[in-house]
Prior knowledge:
The complex is a heterotrimer of chains A (158), B (353) and C (368). Chain A is α/β, with parallel strands linked by helices.
Amino acid sequence: xxxxxxxxxxxxxxxxxxxxxxxxxxxxxxxxxxxxxxxxxxxxxxxxxxxxxxxxxxxxxxxxxxxxxxxxxxxxxxxxxxxxxxxxxxxxxxxxxxxxxxxxxxxxxxxxxxxxxxxxxxxxxxxxxxxxxxxxxxxxxxxxxxxxxxxxxxxxxx
Amino acid sequence: xxxxxxxxxxxxxxxxxxxxxxxxxxxxxxxxxxxxxxxxxxxxxxxxxxxxxxxxxxxxxxxxxxxxxxxxxxxxxxxxxxxxxxxxxxxxxxxxxxxxxxxxxxxxxxxxxxxxxxxxxxxxxxxxxxxxxxxxxxxxxxxxxxxxxxxxxxxxxxxxxxxxxxxxxxxxxxxxxxxxxxxxxxxxxxxxxxxxxxxxxxxxxxxxxxxxxxxxxxxxxxxxxxxxxxxxxxxxxxxxxxxxxxxxxxxxxxxxxxxxxxxxxxxxxxxxxxxxxxxxxxxxxxxxxxxxxxxxxxxxxxxxxxxxxxxxxxxxxxxxxxxxxxxxxxxxxxxxxxxxxxxxxxxxxxxxx
Amino acid sequence: xxxxxxxxxxxxxxxxxxxxxxxxxxxxxxxxxxxxxxxxxxxxxxxxxxxxxxxxxxxxxxxxxxxxxxxxxxxxxxxxxxxxxxxxxxxxxxxxxxxxxxxxxxxxxxxxxxxxxxxxxxxxxxxxxxxxxxxxxxxxxxxxxxxxxxxxxxxxxxxxxxxxxxxxxxxxxxxxxxxxxxxxxxxxxxxxxxxxxxxxxxxxxxxxxxxxxxxxxxxxxxxxxxxxxxxxxxxxxxxxxxxxxxxxxxxxxxxxxxxxxxxxxxxxxxxxxxxxxxxxxxxxxxxxxxxxxxxxxxxxxxxxxxxxxxxxxxxxxxxxxxxxxxxxxxxxxxxxxxxxxxxxxxxxxxxxxxxxxxxxxxxxxxxx
Lengths: 158, 353, 368
């Protein structure tokens, strides 16, 4: 089904839990509340016409004002693609782990825990991953983090 | 005329006579003669080992469509000498936690065991250091010595990779002894003697058709199984698990550097020459052949077998360790024993020429 | 065997190792020769590329994407450039699209040749490495002729490609395609029917289909497990819908199938290159955008392509300024290293090496 049909189908089947966003340019982008994440994910994976059983990528985002997590999903059988966005609060960013639904999420969640500092509940293996074993200097991918020896080039600030 | 004088027959008698003229008496006479001959054989073998290392690199290069060593001399002929000089200058790194005696003696034993087999190998007509009448039995006993040295290297290095490599190699060499000895026994049945000179002599004449390889069916089967078992004995691919670089990063000799490593390395090549020399003597007629001097025939035939082993190395992938053991025990051992029984029956029934 | 006291021991297949492709550390718990538990430890090649990209303009990110996956650098650049062009709705000239397809497919063949050589070398056959690299030299020479570089090309620009191909490119490319097609029978003859090769790779490292889909495995590994999914056909990008090629698919999911499948893919890529060369139009190769002041409209998208290893993706969020807000790079090897413990536990070390080799993992994709 095409992009618009897909949007309507999904919004219809998930009774207002999803909100389509305009900023998704190529594939449909939906925003979902953190509390509804697991139910929505289950429906997306199991529904016959959707069957989003392939998790491509989980990206953590820091827009400067708020934290977001984006799940990029694909359906192998039906050739569909959507993205799911979860907005997290700045003070206490935490989200449920989706590795029960898509086991591929295990390492992606470990990475966003380590680089962004998001708390992933029910993960089971949140240990040091990409950074050094004795890293204690904060969460590097956040926008308000600078490396101690980071040099800014004024001519690049355009 | 020139070819006849290059025959080198009677060098033992000549040396004996020369020393008697000098006034030496028994037992010093025998001791000096044997020492001189052993040192000569040792020297010749070192040269052969150097040549083999260069040759392997050239063969590998040409199989892989490149040239191999080209810079040190014409087509790199003294590359090995340069490599040996370089290894002599390297620091002898010794791990603190090693088992000192075991670590030290492992390369020594490997090197010595590799050379001891050459006492009974006939390099030509009359060119043998000592014609023991248990020649081939002596060689089988000596070539098993390398197992202990590999195990010592694996244990003494205090390194899990080395230990794994040593264990694997011990299992492999001991397993492949059985089909190797059974193939050798097949030839012994027909030659009737364990002495290497007698085996060579019994393949004389009748152009090349007296060679044991040409006495079907047991000859060719025994030759093939012998070559397979010999490749495993010499730790060459496809059986080079003990030194599988890609899995265990050089296996049992991972902690050796400098001259100790060079000893293992040269011992491997000398071992390869040993098993090829035995194959030549037992199956390919030893030093027999028309026109050319006997030592030249021996050298050519042995180098052909060595070439076969080298081509194996650069063509085939490596077997996994359990597949290797399965192949030895479930396939080679029954085949060689069946061949042995067949050969024994043929000799008893008189069906051979 | 009861009553015999044994002990498991830990071996470290450390970051320096000839057969972990790149710097990957595997902590193995072993019971004799059998591997009981594998724990991959990554991060030895972490260069914080995503953070760097947030401080660079879009044009400056392209050479960084080269280093994201340097074996198939053209694909890495292309996925980023594709995302930016879709966001900014830039129309790329026809000739540039054809050139991009030719370069992408040549890069795919080069990567598969390296796979062939490295896998054969890991399993012990030392000669195919030289053969694979010899043919790759033909392809690398073509790249050098076009953009001057052999490994990290900086060839794709936002709006087209940076250099047009010289006159000698087309005949040399046809000749390279012909030579590689002929040599394929050499490669197959050397290893395909070899009993030792079959014993080492058949039924080794079997990846069942549902495990593959659950762990996000893509590319040749997924296709060898029975799922016929190729982004070039299922979700076409660039001008791939104009070319006629097959998607090979195999069903056993063992190392032998993965090896055979990549050899089949080389043949399909050769077909695509010939079709692209035949249909190459004239025209200009670049629709110029100002590299310093390029501001795509705000938005976000996930662009994905079929790399030689699997699905390579880039999730870009643009906020209307000259620098991206977020560039998330997704490499397929990340998922493949994650699935390794599930596939290679309970086997001997030699099988672990064979499985890891046929999964075709490249560490810069994992660590970024």
